Amino acid sequence: MIHEKIFQLKGGREVKVIVKGYFLNDSPELSTEYEILIKEPKEKFFRSPIGINHPQYWKMKRSGAQQAKSLVLEYSGVSQRQVNQVVSEFNKVLSYPPAKIGLQYERDLV
Question: How many Å from the N-terminal Cα to the C-terminal Cα in the chain?
Fold first, then answer.
């Protein structure tokens, strides 16, 4: 299951937070992760906040997963509170019975 939310920041930048939930192999627990994309006012499409031409790209690549997420969060302009809000909305949607039925069906397919 995927949940997306777009935040409008000062200066016209848009930040899209994408939360994905999936079942791990042989586990009844749902695992979630998030991705952050940005779009400047004159751009047409969303992109990663730290691309190959960004000065911090190689620092991000050499760091651990948690530190890399922290760098992406910092350079996107969105706060951890806003990301937590999107994850909370995702979990709220999962609490509805039809969503659980859909996830169970998806898990059976995998």
Answer: 13
AA letter at 70: S
> Which runs of E-coded beta strand occur in 9-83?
14-23, 30-39
Helices (H), the chain: 57-62, 65-76, 80-94, 97-109
pTM here is 0.75
The proportion of the chain whose per-residue pLDDT surpasses 90, expressed as a percent, equals 28
Which residues constitute the domain of residue 35? 2-109
Report the domain count for the chain: 1
Question: Which residues does 39 contact at the CB level (< 8 Å), separation at least 6?
Answer: 13, 14, 15, 16, 45, 46, 47
Q: How far apart are CA 101 and CA 78, in angstroms?
A: 32
Contacts of 109 (CB under 8 A, 6+ apart): none
